[in-house]
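Below is one record:
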Amino acid sequence: MNSRVTMGLAGLLLLGAIFVGYWGFVLSRQPAPVAAPVVAPTTTTTVEKTVASAEDQTRQPVVVLTRDVPPFTPLTAADLTIEKLRSAPAGSLGSLEQAVGRTPWRQLKAGTWLSDDSFEAGGALARMIRSNERALAVAVDEVIGAAGQLTPGDYVDVLLFLRQDSSNLQQSAQIVVPAMRVLGVGEQYGLTNDGQPATPALSADDKLKQDQRRIAARTVVLAVPEQLLSRLMLATQVGTLRLAVRSSEEQRLAKYWAGADAAPGKLDSANSQLFQFTQLALGAAPKSPASGGHSAAARAPIEVIRGNQISQQTP
């Protein structure tokens, strides 16, 4: 009897030990799935969202076209979108309300950021010059046009050669107008005043063809100060012109973009340096130099320009 009781108790204890061992095993495995903290991804995502939100607040909104818009077509909300840029272009529009309903005067490409200049009248050439300049086309060939190597943005001196004939007793060569900016060569044009290309971007093949046409171009468009416009026009009619390219080290284009205008003294100097051209423009043959330097200098006439009228007055 004692042995049976003992064996029963031993069996119960064995079962209890097995149950306790199993329960302990189950409890020891429960924390395993929670071992990898879930907080880490949440924290990383929160930090990324915070950084993105802070960066978004520093960006500036810019109105951009989502598709091509033909000229004289009012803009709708479907044509526009807002993009956030680190640095907004100068003068760009920042809200859709500033552009909806407005009518551009020229074709605008998709991806173009809008400004008030986008709605101003005038073609590409009119937007490449300032109010005190005029764009004038000059006929050229391989000799006149620097062997076809002129490109928009170059600066050239316009030279005039006067042959000796019955109306011109002494041949001469002179600079008619110095430092003229080249706006376009043939069909190729440079940048407008807002820094945008005057012509749309071309593919590599089209650009190669355009360069070939530029070399063979027979017209060059120059930006001429208004005061010297009639002077240059007369020069194209009375003699042979040459375009002499100036060095890029002068940084004249940089000065132009910086807003530096030609000083009035330079224009006066350009007028005073002309020799014999004034007499030919007036239709009178130049007179031979008089003897006696002092008396000749005293009687030297003064050139007076009133609009397109040129006259000589003796002091």
About this structure: Residues 284-298 have pLDDT under 50 and may be disordered.
